[in-house]
Each structure stands twice: as C-alpha cells, then as structure tokens.
Amino acid sequence: MPSKVRTITPAASAITVGDSPDASPTSATGRLLGIDLARGLAVLGMYTAHFGPDPATVGGPLGFLLELARGRSSALFALLAGFTLVIITGRPHPRTGRAGRQAMGRVVIRSIILIVLGFALTALGTDVDVILAFYGLIFLAVLPLYRLRARTLAVIAVVSALVMPQVLYVIRQWIDGGGWSDAVIAADPLARISGTDGLVELLFTGEYPVLTWMSFMIAGMAVARLDLTCSRTRLRLAVAGGTLAVLGYGGSWLALHLAPHALTTVSAATDGGSASSAWWSDTVGFLEDGIPAAWLLVGAPHSQTTFSVLGNTGVALVVVAGCLAAVPRLPRLTRLMAPVSAVGVVALTAYVAHILLIRAIGVEEETGPALFGLAAFSAATMLLATLCVRRFRRGPLEYLLYAATRPARHIKGGRP
Q1: Secondary structure (3-state) at 229
Q2: What is the largest distance, in Å, between two alpha-carbon atoms of the chain?
Q3: pTM
Q4: How far, in Å, CA of 238 to CA of 310, rounded?
Q5: Residue 260 within any structural domain of the chain
Q6: What pLDDT, in 10s, does the model give residues 11-50?
Q7: pLDDT score of 272
Q8: 315 exposed, middle or buried (CB, 10 Å; 0-12, 13-18, 19+)?
Q9: Distances in whole angstroms, Cα of residue 306 to Cα of each of 156, 213, 249, 295, 377
Q10: Cβ proximity of 286 and 295 under 8 Å
C-alpha cells in the first residue's frame, strides 16, 4: 500500500499488530486500520440507535438503515472488544510468564474501571441502556480463554451461541417464578452501591446479559488470532459471516413460520410489536410478562436467542471483513472514511460523550429534529476525533484508562 495511505489514518500504540512489516491493512505505527474503521462504524451505529428517530416512522431505505444499526452496532462493538483483549494479552502469540500475568492484570483493571464507569453513567438516568458495565464483566468472564487458538475460540463461541440463550431462558423463567433473585440482589454489595440489580442484572436480566453477549467477545478473540493481512483469510471471514447471518435471521424466519402458532404467540406476548419482523428487527417490541417458549425462535437483535446471536455475529464479521479489505484496496475510500476511523480510535471517549450529551439536552422525538441532531452530533464527533488523533495518540478517556492500567507492570512472581 502506498505510504500516503498509511499516513492519513489515525494512529496509536494501543492496538499494536504483530504482523509482518508489509502488512497492508496496518498503519506505519502498527494499528489495524480496518479494525479502527469497524469500531468507528459501531460507535456511530449506536449513535443512530440513541439519537435517531424511530425507524418505523421514517420508512424506506433510510428507515431500513436506521433499523439495521439497532442492536447490531453494539454486537459489533462487543466483538471488537474481544479483539482488544487479544491485543492486550498478546497478538499474534499470547504472552506467558510474567508478561502474561501483567497483561491479565491490565485486563482486570480495565474491567473494573468499565464496570464502575458503566454504573456511573447508568446513574445519570438516561433512557440509554449503558453497555460498559456488561462489557467489563464479559472481559473478566472470557479472560481465562486468552491463550487459546483461533479454531478453539471459534468452537467455544459457536457452542456458547447455541447453548447459552437456552440456559438464559431457563434462568429467567426461574427468576420470574420465584423470589430467590430478590434475596441475591439484597445481599449483593454491587447492587446496594449502584442502586441496580447488580450481578443478577449483569448476568441475566439486563439488556446485554453476560451469558449471551460473551459469545460476541469470544468470536472477536478468534478473529484476532487470524492472519488478517491475508486476503484469503478476509474472504473466508466474510463468507463465514454471511453464512451465520443467513442461519440466524433466515433460520428465525423459517422457524417462526413453520412452528405452529409461533407468530401469534410472539405477537401476543409483546407490547404491540410487529411479530412479522421478529426474525430480524427490534420493532417486534418487548415482552410484557413472562417469556413464552416461542420467543426462542425470534431473531431480533436484543432478543437474547441463538438466532439473534448467530445473525448479529454474522453481520459483525461481514463488517469487519469488509473494513479490513477496503483499506488496502480502496485508498480513496480509506481517506474519506478517516474521520470514522478516528472515532474508532477514541471509541470510549465518544461513547461516554454521547451519554453525557443525552443527559444534558435529551433527545428529539420528532423525525426531522432527530435526524438533524443525529447528523450534527455525528459530524461533530468525527471532527473532534480527527483533531484529537492528529494531535495525540489516544482520546482523553483512552489515555486515562491506559494510565490506570500501568500499575500492572509491577506484577511479578513466578518465572519471567
């Protein structure tokens, strides 16, 4: 790739790639530029979900794009968080000995900070289901897997996607049927401090339960173990993603239409949603009381089902493969998308900023003002992110997070 393409994209040392010097999808400072681009798209997609109008009121191609971003953007962000975990703990080869323990210490510190920050943002009382605390706990849950190979991680991700939604369904039924969760919440210090349901919410009842969302992060860890500089690998990644998307959303559509009374049951259980779109869209609505077994056939992004996990993972993989492929092959597009990549570099700062802005000024309900607000804030974020990464190596919160994990360097014991 020509050097002029390498210099126009934000660079930072937070994501150091251990690939060969001529790895085309990387910048001169070692960042995988396609990953920055994908992460930026994930952040802006979450802006779309939180600032944008209701897709049903917009309709047409724009409404489709707005709906497409909902749920799938946060899943992409979770998958890329798995990539970050592997970067911290060693890519392409996992760190061992003292270096491995120090890397694990960095992840643990990062996780605790994200959990605290997530609960602090939740305490602001916005309508946004803040995802950071869930991410922090998922980091801790999947950390023991960091030394596994790509194939093993992929198998675990698939098994988790197939099994954990059913486990979550059983646990949620158990919670609805008894008062044991109230006793656990009452004894949970995290629940008392945060004013939430604490670990029960993070693991089972929240919008991003660890039990099902850890599949995305494990899949991201598997992707990070691959040689992403190889065009054949990126092609296989795209094919795998497309296959998973078809299995997830297409499988849900078939199941809902073939299973007796499935659509009727789902429609009756939700708050006035459209069961006909339950195979791919959150317009299906939300459950009013209880969780009927037919809900396991739904593929909507936030439904916590096997179909939704497979479909969301598939879309995320296609986006990642597309971004990785675009950087070396489409230099003009890379230059045009540099502001989006910059948002990916300062993703934590950009995410927290939009929560604070929503707390300060709220969000518009009307379609026109909501679209204007979404466009204005997205443009401002891209501009500020671009200026930030040109002047500094990280965003402000990224720098603070990096500084907070530096004490892990003092971890010793055992062999070097």
Answers
A1: coil
A2: 63
A3: 0.91
A4: 14
A5: no
A6: 333 333 333 333 335 654 456 899 999 999 999 999 999 9
A7: 59
A8: buried
A9: 14, 11, 10, 11, 34
A10: no
